[in-house]
Amino acid sequence: xxxxxxxxxxxxxxxxxxxxxxxxxxxxxxxxxxxxxxxxxxxxxxxxxxxxxxxxxxxxxxxxxxxxxxxxxxxxxxxxxxxxxxxxxxxxxxxxxxxxxxxxxxxxxxxxxxxxxxxxxxxxxxxxxxxxxxxxxxxxxxxxxxxxxxxxxxxxxxxxxxxxxxxxxxxxxxxxxxxxxxxxxxxxxxxxxxxxxxxxxxxxxxxxxxxxxxxxxxxxxxxxxxxxxxxxxxxxxxxxxxxxxxxxxxxxxxxxxxxxxxxxxxxxxxxxxxxxxxxxxxxxxxxxxxxxxxxxxxxxxxxxxxxxxxxxxxxxxxxxxxxxxxxxxxxxxxxxxxxxxxxxxxxxxxxxxxxxxxxxxxxxxxxxxxxxxxxxxxxxxxxxxxxxxxxxxxxxxxxxxxxxxxxxxxxxxxxxxxxxxxxxxxxxxxxxxxxxxxxxxxxxxxxxxxxxxxxxxxxxxxxxxxxxxxxxxxxxxxxxxxxxxxxxxxxxxxxxxxxxxxxxxxxxxxxxxxxxxxxxxxxxxxxxxxxxxxxxxxxxxxxxxxxxxxxxxxxxxxxxxxxxxxxxxxxxxxxxxxxxxxxxxxxxxxxxxxxxxxxxxxxxxxxxxxxxxxxxxxxxxxxxxxxxxxxxxxxxxxxxxxxxxxxxxxxxxxxxxxxxxxxxxxxxxxxxxxxxxxxxxxxxxxxxxxxxxxxxxxxxxxxxxxxxxxxxxxxxxxxxxxxxxxxxxxxxxxxxxxxxxxxxxxxxxxxxxxxxxxxxxxxxxxxxxxxxxxxxxxxxxxxxx
Amino acid sequence: xxxxxxxxxxxxxxxxxxxxxxxxxxxxxxxxxxxxxxxxxxxxxxxxxxxxxxxxxxxxxxxxxxxxxxxxxxxxxxxxxxxxxxxxxxxxxxxxxxxxxxxxxxxxxxxxxxxxxxxxxxxxxxxxxxxxxxxxxxxxxxxxxxxxxxxxxxxxxxxxxxxxxxxxxxxxxxxxxxxxxxxxxxxxxxxxxxxxxxxxxxxxxxxxxxxxxxxxxxxxxxxxxxxxxxxxxxxxxxxxxxxxxxxxxxxxxxxxxxxxxxxxxxxxxxxxxxxxxxxxxxxxxxxxxxxxxxxxxxxxxxxxxxxxxxxxxxxxxxxxxxxxxxxxxxxxxxxxxxxxxxxxxxxxxxxxxxxxxxxxxxxxxxxxxxxxxxxxxxxxxxxxxxxxxxxxxxxxxxxxxxxxxxxxxxxxxxxxxxxxxxxxxxxxxxxxxxxxxxxxxxxxxxxxxxxxxxxxxxxxxxxxxxxxxxxxxxxxxxxxxxxxxxxxxxxxxxxxxxxxxxxxxxxxxxxxxxxxxxxxxxxxxxxxxxxxxxxxxxxxxxxxxxx
Lengths: 785, 547
Known about the structure:
By secondary structure, chain A is an alpha/beta fold. The longest helix of chain A is centred in the middle third of the chain and has 53 residues, at 448-500. Chain B contains 21 helices and no strands.
């Protein structure tokens, strides 16, 4: 009869809510310029009401929590037999599972109007009504699990039963309203996928809302004591460290709202778990206030997440995690794994570790800075003061603490730390410095030096933990960056494949540029600098040319050359070597380049022959060609006798020659030299110049930078002048003669203008368009004649 | 005007700028607009020093309360004396690089100043660096020792000046010793055979000495039963050592308030004498040693060997082998890990075997060996955190080459691994002869040390890859003594060794067979993760390294 009334009442409520909801639809509230949907406010108010109604249920002890095992009998467990429910094991199991589902359902419905989440709505529409119906059907039995006492009749009009009925009615109203709305709007699109998501949602959260007594009720006292790294203890630790990692992987692509939902649901489950275990009649209320570090965290976390309270959150992030982690690693528990006390202990501490940690790792709260650390310290200071006052007061006030239970919030009153040998030295500090305050009949005792030490030590640990977090952030950033770059490489590879349009990757990307170096809109900015080292440089150099590149110190010559040979990255623009893009086809492009750097980059402990052989291997030169070329060039440069001596014994010129040999060992199409004549004697300088001319005359490109203007003027077919990172002029020496200007004058004009910080006249930024290849070929022909 | 010129050209003026120039490079001053960050950095460093002090104090307190240990003047003197010996040895090596082998010498020697001034400026900069480093060990040690020993006012008053003295003594002594050392090093570098013979003889001598010393150890050592006797013997040893500790005994006496009027002046006189000795004996040799060059040297001729390799990897590997055998520092480093290793392992195992008293003795021995072996290997492997950077300006050759030059890092890695394998093999031999461990346990141990060590090498490479110091090595060459990557790699190596040693012990105690299975699973998982991460980072970051 009662069940039928409850069910009908629930349905009526649902219909009423649907009607009210309909009436309020599209109605709006304007509060201080902000517009709110009246219907939304109504549903949110219902949710808050549901939460408040469920609170007493959480705070009060349930009779079923005392039963250990489904078949507990007096002979086996006389001390627990009295609490055995008057049902068969099957019914008891069903009732326990129903209580579990009710926990989950209430949390889901409380959260429902605050988040637009389809799987949560589907839970409310399809699962919650079943839970409500079952609660109605088994209402008397459910009340028995809560109020049962041997020899006493369970009254269905007990205030707890009435409140519970209200919870069921309100839950039913919300969930049926959801179901009715779903049916009426025929919202069944993509049902298969939605059911799959609902199943995942169920699996993700269902364990979080398990009542603490369920394991001991269903399985009895089983499993090793979760202490000292036993199997059960290890399982808990694996979960503690593995769960945040798993969530990080699962939620990294989810929206911020979904992440917040996850964390609030978990925080809510922790809140349920804590209060269902700790606050009930029979224990002194003052000894079970949520003021013992991890309990404070569990009680406050949900509010920190819901209302985005930074001070509280960072207090838990810096202080609670430490204590909770220690408690999880070195637990102070006894008895079997499934014992309610143990389950509850680990629920609290594991939550106190993973919830704050995940808050930052999932990005719901930002990474801490000094300001946030300051907030955390401020809140922690307040917390320590409250704990110290309550410890000192309640332990010395029999009227407030009639059972005499030790009140030891944050371990400030007991000898918890002093019992550890590492802290024994502080014993005298605690008991030699006591402050006793008498306020009326009350007395408050402070161990002020000891308390201060613990406070300061905790602050130091907060900073130490910040350091550890810093390392973790670095690791996370580094892995994220790695993943991002990997993706970029893949994207670039695919783009190149697409652009090659079925041609092999060993072919030039731009076949039209197969006989030249082409630099287009090249710019380079070094990291840490805002100024371009080279800006928008355009240049084409053709086969058969010796091309001189001159400019003052810091003009951008070496920067251009280094990007040209692929040593440095390119900020903007492209560089092509024989049609190969140096950035996108680096290996193919480099195979065509021989490079002589400006700094004698040679392994000094290798012999000349070993070094050249090493470079030849890098350029995949055959053994026969290598030996022939080494013999030829060693003879040409007069190095034959020194080839088997370590390079460290070579003179400056000899080192330069060995670099020239190694650059030419693969007979490159493009030979690039960065200030090759610096510090050389006239003979060596002459040999290298001859070599450059001969290489260009053989149909190759020689590109070199130099400060020796006479040499550039004499051997180059064309010259480029760079100043202040910009290409100022590209011309042939003959053009300058026609203009009546020397290269030196031109160079000095640009260098002086750059030094004075003014824009030089006649800046030429575009390449000189003329049939240069033909000019160069003619010149080569003349020289050969 | 004349006065102004004279002032600008004075010794102090030149010295000031020489010191500022080098110190500025070393300590990297505060950038404009980064005042807050700098203050925060200093704050963190002070916090770190305070934390070290607190940790040392806790450890000392624990030892004092648990083992009834007395922290008195004798122990203080011995600790200071022994740490100073180690400090002098390490300082000599660094001093040789800084004074004579630094690439910056070519620039400094060309400055319009006296060579003596360059010498003095280098000593000052080196000393400043040592003082900075000592803030994180010597100073915390002095503070915590004073606290735990309940030292009197004399200790606290003299703490700061004597701390400076304690830090400066090794600097001054090593400056003097580095003069002959640099010539000996050069000579031995040109005579590798003689060098090899000397190393073997030296190590043989050390081994004989150690074996002789260990023969006095009564086995089995029952620490608890003979605790009082042990402590008495320990005190006697301290007193004997302190007899040889020369003026360090005077520092101990002065700090603990014994005849300060006599001992403190002795310390000051010795300091002044060392200062004078340094400047009047070492200084005249400085220019000759610092300005010598290998150009036109007659040594370094090598016969033509195999110069062509089928694979690029072998090209790189061959180059690495040649460079290692031709570099005295590399070969010394490799030889020391292969040859000194067995001696340390022998001593440790002898002591552990002597105190082994319970059922878990074998497990302790295994875990201990795993930890010690990994720690020692990590000191060598940490050098890999400069492997890419050490290429210096030569890195341009790799960057400009049209081949997969990433293989060069794998070749370097392979060479380090060869040295590690040789070291582990010698360790296994030593354990076979010094312990009663069954052969299968030794083989299992070797089988797990190698992957962890390889993982450690990969990690060290990764540190260098992500934050290369190519420009530093290009400018300074082998004189780079403060590469933070190496320090980081050392720290990681030490942590991994400690954690893995502890895990080994715990898992073996839990269950011998499943313990080994789990140890192998963890070890090889660690290796696979490091391998995956390193190859990923290499693929993504190698091409971005810019010389």
